[in-house]
Amino acid sequence: MLYGIGLGPGDPELLTLKAVRILKESIKVFVPGEMAAELIRPYVTEEPEILDFPMIYDEEKLKEIWKANAENVAEYARKGDVAFCLIGDPNFFSTFTHMKKVLADVAPDVEVDTVPGISSITSCAARMGVAVETSFEVHDGVSDINYFIHLKARKPQEIIARFEKEGYKEFIFAERLFSDREVICKGKENIPEEGNYFSIVYGKK
């Protein structure tokens, strides 16, 4: 099993309890850089392996590097639990997102799971001393928006119908995440008419 572990914004005390437990139990830990390695050293028994992801423009060379890194990770993940740790969250603008795609090609037999980290979105509100109490937008400077996350999705099918008109085609409904009452429904046809305060709809074009 390969775990993608979010380390949060940079404070070693802001790692989740689950992240720390998996780090301690993993037979091997990988990181994409020294910053991540420094954060996890208090919680691992062996030195983490830093994988090289160079900032180059040669696509063929990049493919070779990603493939080699994925094969390296897969070799250990077939033997036991392995962690790939990174600053922030593994599913938001993350090296791990691309690692999963490459791994699915070179090692489809390896199971993958993610452990969320405290994101920069919530971290910045805490450090700035600001409160977000109404709808808000997170933007990376690109005008073409391809995803949405709608919180408090009390009428999920109505939300879906509205976003379908904007070109969104893939939808996931979630409720009470990470609790013993968690619900996750993929595909418009499987999503209920009614949600509640703890419901979320995710959409992708």
UniProtKB/TrEMBL annotation:
One BP annotation, GO: cobalamin biosynthetic process
Coiled-coil spans in chain: none
Single annotated GO MF: precorrin-2 C20-methyltransferase activity
Keywords tagged on the record: Cobalamin biosynthesis
Pfam families according to UniProt: TP_methylase (PF00590)
InterPro entries: 4pyrrol_Mease, 4pyrrol_Methylase_sf, 4pyrrole_Mease_sub1, CobI/CbiL, Uropor_MeTrfase_CS
Domain of life: Archaea
SUPFAM superfamilies reported in the protein's UniProt record: Tetrapyrrole methylase
Pathway it works in: Cofactor biosynthesis; adenosylcobalamin biosynthesis
Domain named Tetrapyrrole methylase: residues: 1-142
Family label: Belongs to the precorrin methyltransferase family.
PANTHER family listed in its UniProt record: COBALT-PRECORRIN-2 C(20)-METHYLTRANSFERASE (PTHR43467)
Protein name per its UniProtKB record: Tetrapyrrole methylase domain-containing protein
